[in-house]
Amino acid sequence: MLVLGIAGGTGSGKTTVVNQIIKHFPSDEVCVISQDSYYRATDNLSYEERTKINFDHPRAIDFELLVQHLKELKQGKIIEQPVYSFVTHNRTIDTIQTHPRKVVIVEGILIFNNEELRNLFDIKIFVHADTDERLIRRIRRDITERGRDIDEVLNRYQDTLKPMHQQFIEPTKNFADIIIPNDKFNTVAVDIVRTVINERL
Ligand SMILES: Nc1ncnc2c1ncn2[C@@H]1O[C@H](COP(=O)(O)OP(=O)(O)O)[C@@H](O)[C@H]1O
Ligand SMILES: Nc1ccn([C@@H]2O[C@H](COP(=O)(O)O)[C@@H](O)[C@H]2O)c(=O)n1
């Protein structure tokens, strides 16, 4: 099994890069785990209280469960990956059965921040896009796909997202084996990653 970690700031294009990588592999050879699925369950909080959570701080993530699940996949076990709702800001009651595959990809903003998780990756990739580009993408995506309005996105950006990115995400670029510049769609970099995967398998 080859485990890839793909990190990068919000809107850098992690999900897009993952989708470009996996479309060239048969579906029974690759699986994806998203850090977003592992936001902590907060059933004890009201919706109003959940909107105030700092979702860009490492403590918002259930790294214990994420590490446990990745270890179980490595042991050949099937896991129940949680399903998270960006609309309710909470885990849903659903899970996705995720099977161990030859290639396992873990993607998320903070995955290189946790040492135990970081040490489970065979290849570490950081997707980079400029700050203004990421903010533009985030505004578009969160309004069309995540049920937000412009004030929500900009307030969150100023209050937590930008400072947390500088403190917890950008420094982890130093852990990367490969940095993908993704201000424009970068098919060359994706081809290189696919070649590296094929060579290692
Ligand atoms: N290279 C790119 N050029 C233009 N838009 C992009 C690029 N990569 C991703 N996007 C768009 O930006 C938004 C955020 O991308 P996404 O892959 O979801 O980022 P992330 O997973 O890092 O938050 C999506 O709407 C996606 O289509
Ligand atoms: N309820 C939530 C939970 C997280 N976020 C934001 O998601 C970003 C990480 O996801 P990406 O797909 O963009 O990597 C992160 O920056 C959180 O602020 C949210 O808005 N609401």
TrEMBL record:
Domain Phosphoribulokinase/uridine kinase: 3-186
Major location (coarse): cytoplasm
The organism's place on the tree of life at top rank: Bacteria
EC number: 2.7.1.48
Gene Ontology biological process terms in this record: CTP salvage; UMP salvage
Reactions accelerated catalytically: cytidine + ATP = CMP + ADP + H(+); uridine + ATP = UMP + ADP + H(+)
Single GO molecular function: cytidine kinase activity
Transmembrane domains' residue ranges: none
InterPro entries from the UniProt entry: P-loop_NTPase, PRK/URK, Uridine_kinase-like
Pathway(s) served: Pyrimidine metabolism; UMP biosynthesis via salvage pathway; UMP from uridine: step 1/1; Pyrimidine metabolism; CTP biosynthesis via salvage pathway; CTP from cytidine: step 1/3
Entry GO CC: cytoplasm
Family statement drawn from the similarity comment of this UniProt entry: Belongs to the uridine kinase family.
Stated name of the protein: Uridine kinase
